[in-house]
Amino acid sequence: MSVPDVAPAVKSSSAAFTAAKAEGRGALVGYLPVGYPSVPGSLAALKALCGAGGDGPGVDLVEIGLPYSDPIMDGPVIQQAGTRALERGVRTTDVFAAVEAVCSTGTQAVVMTYWNLVDRYGVDAFARDLANAGGSGLITPDLIPDEADEWLAASDAHGLDRIFLVSPSSGDERIRSTAAACRGWMYATAVMGVTGMRAASSSAAPELVGRIRTLAPQTLVGVGLGVSTGDQAAEVTGFADGVIVGSAFVKSLLAAEAAGTPDDLSGLRAVLAGLAEGVRR
């Protein structure tokens, strides 16, 4: 499969990685789903993730999740929040408002979604509306480059990054072809199975990133493997260009709702502070 030679996205999410690298550190990518604890509540949480209303730095890049009814790759924490968001009426179009909210803070945003939602919306229409909202690109966990011709064309037409995934089970040729199809950066999921917080980093992570460095040395790599602490974030950014954190942020929102204070973002800000410190060691 050949990928058209096109100019990179004007607002490529790779800028978040290169800016962090210029500071001598790895990038912190933070994930939250739109619609939880409500659509307005999720917009406030996303802005807090960018550092708004806090005393310290925010994430370098925001990954906005679009809840889906069959989240086969999500762990229990993200599944719980996504299910509640769907029950409370979140819609695909709400993700564009979320992108606008993030971009209003000066932080770049990418969307992560299962492909069926994009397909149902209309691939070119989704790319158009994402670009118009200020989004930088799309992470597609269940879409492989071999089956992505329509998305390759739409992302080229609207100047969007396309971020595909590789895992420890990916062969060398799969890593090479995925890197060739990516624009912006590559998502390395360094554990087998569903996402979620883990007590320790995966030993497969540095090995996978090392293989990517050998096979596709120009590719920026963000690693997602259940990181929840500053120590883990520091460890991962010691060998990868960025660390992706989701469940730890979502868990703080679930805890706030369980306490009867769904609008309390102090827990999220505390998690953010620890992670931001970790990537700056």
CATH top level label:
Alpha Beta
* CATH-assigned fold name: TIM Barrel
Terminal CA distance: 41 Å
Class computed from helices, strands and strand pairing: alpha/beta
Beta strands, count: 9
- What is the makeup of the main sheet? 9 strands, parallel
Give me the CATH architecture, please. Answer: Alpha-Beta Barrel
Net shape: globular
The count of helical stretches stands at 12
In helices, the fraction of residues equals 40-55%
Q: Could you give the order of strands across the largest sheet?
A: 5-4-3-2-1-9-8-7-6
Uncertain regions: pLDDT < 50 for 5+ in a row?
A: 1-9, 192-201
Oligomer: single chain
In short:
The protein is an alpha/beta fold. It has helices spanning 14-22, 39-49, 76-87, 94-103, 115-121, 123-133, 149-158, 172-181, 204-215, 230-236, 247-258, 266-279; strands spanning 27-33, 61-65, 108-112, 137-139, 161-163, 165-166, 186-189, 221-224, 242-245.
Task: List the defining traits of the structure above.
single chain; 281 residues; alpha/beta; TIM Barrel; nine-stranded parallel β-sheet; 12 helices; 13% strand; disordered N terminus
Explain what you see:
With 281 residues, this protein is an alpha/beta fold. It has one domain: Aldolase class I (TIM Barrel). It is built from 12 helices and 9 strands. Strands 5-4-3-2-1-9-8-7-6 form a 9-stranded parallel β-sheet. Helix 7 links the parallel strand 4 and strand 5. Helix 2 packs parallel to helix 4, helix 6 runs parallel beside helix 7 and helix 11 runs antiparallel to helix 12. It is globular. 50% of the residues are buried.
